[in-house]
Amino acid sequence: MCRANFIIRNMNGDEIHSVDEWFKYAPPKMGIRHWKDKRSAKEVAKAWIGTGKPVMPIKLKSVLDTHQFTKDFYPDWVIPEMITALDNFKGEHRNQDLGILGASLEGKVFISVEAKADEPFDKMISMQISNAKEGSKIPARIEGFSKAIFGRPVDDRIGQLKYQLLTGLAGALIEAKSQNADYAVFIVHEFISRSLDAKKLSRNSDDFQMFFEELTEISGLNYGDGKLHEIKSVPGGEFVPAGMPLLSGKIQTQLT
After folding, report:
1. Confidence of residue 1 (pLDDT cuts 50, 70, 90)
2. Dist. CA 34–CA 188, nearest whole Å
């Protein structure tokens, strides 16, 4: 499927035409400290705009083509460092490395991309709760999302999962509803190089697998196999929509 060229822009509407403009208009949270070759923030920019014009990475297109809901997807716009309000609490919300809106043969699709080198998926959920400052709304936020995504409060099993994956799925669903999309997709895009820590990569793979085994209640599947996996409809909550089709998967780009 071939449609008019899509645009890459920031949250303010400034269009991005190069890697340098990506950093200028949509820098990573930690700024220049995270803007390095072989690290995820800069590599995802190079993957999308390194040629000087917007191009959807072939690995992303390939994984989307593995499911009927997202087959022949083409973006309308891409927003780096897209912020999605998770609830009515003050403080930080979901910072998506990429938010992508477009359409497939089946309907309107919103995609949230989490770019990774060997950075962790944040802390365990139990640690995120126990480390919260007095008066923080983080424990209440986590409990709400646990019920909305898993259908139960945080227990010992959910407590071992990674916080960023919980908020990643919640953010994808919330933003998909906000964009009037028919389908929500959460993708982890790993950028692999010889400079990365093999133990950290293995840890991330295990954390991703553990999260989706708990969510789907299905073991024995490889959720990082480069295919999209359809997630059972989540129960939903005050902010997370129930009943929206949700897909997730992981892709890898090998860097030279």
Report:
1. very low
2. 18
